[in-house]
Amino acid sequence: MTTSKMPQQTAAAAAPLRVPLPADVTAPALARHEVRTALLGYGVDERGLADVLLATSELVTNAFEHGERPKRLELEYAGGYLTLRVYDTGALLPELRAPSPAQARSRGLVLVQALSVDWGFERCAGGKFVWAVFRVSDD
Which residues of 101-120 are buried (b: 16+ CB within 10 A; e: fewer)? Predict the structure, then answer.
């Protein structure tokens, strides 16, 4: 996990971001763009974006590969923590697996776990959310 330096004036909670995602391969790029724009608006320094943006790509891509497809992305900021949630309609729950060195793929959740302070999933009506939490304040 890395942390970024966030100005003190952004310590208040920000309005949650909810972004519908397209049903095609542009979803990860759109999600990264929306998250980047929101984080810069919250006052997160450009250098503090990389971990969150990589995790965004991984969660949205995993929803395509292991869910039905990503339907929406949600981002909340409060108390120096960002919570990123990706909703999909799939019933298959995420499973953290240690990838084989010979595998070219299957490292998404390992990356999300390494980059975030916490991650998980929750079932909800019609599918599930997979989420990750990032510390972005300068304590």
Answer: eeeeeeebbebbbebbeebe
Closest CA to 43 of 83, 78, 75, 8: 8
Beta-ladder partners of 86: 73, 130
Q: Which two tokens stand for residue 139?
A: 């304590």
Judge whether 92 and 66 are in contact, CB under 8 Å: yes
Between residues 133 and 97, the one the model is more confident about: 133
SS (H, E, C) 68-126: CCEEEEEEEEECCEEEEEEEECCCCCCCCCCCCCCCCCCCHHHHHHHHCCEEEEEEECC
End-to-end CA, the chain: 14
Taking the model in full, what pTM does it have? 0.81
Q: At 93, is the pLDDT very low, low, confident or very high (cuts 50, 70, 90)?
A: confident
Residue that has been written with the tokens 């490292």 in this structure = 107
The pLDDT tens digits for 5-54 are: 333 334 457 788 999 999 999 999 999 999 999 998 888 888 778 999 99
Indicate if the alpha-carbon torsion angle 74, 75, 76, 79 is positive or negative.
Answer: positive
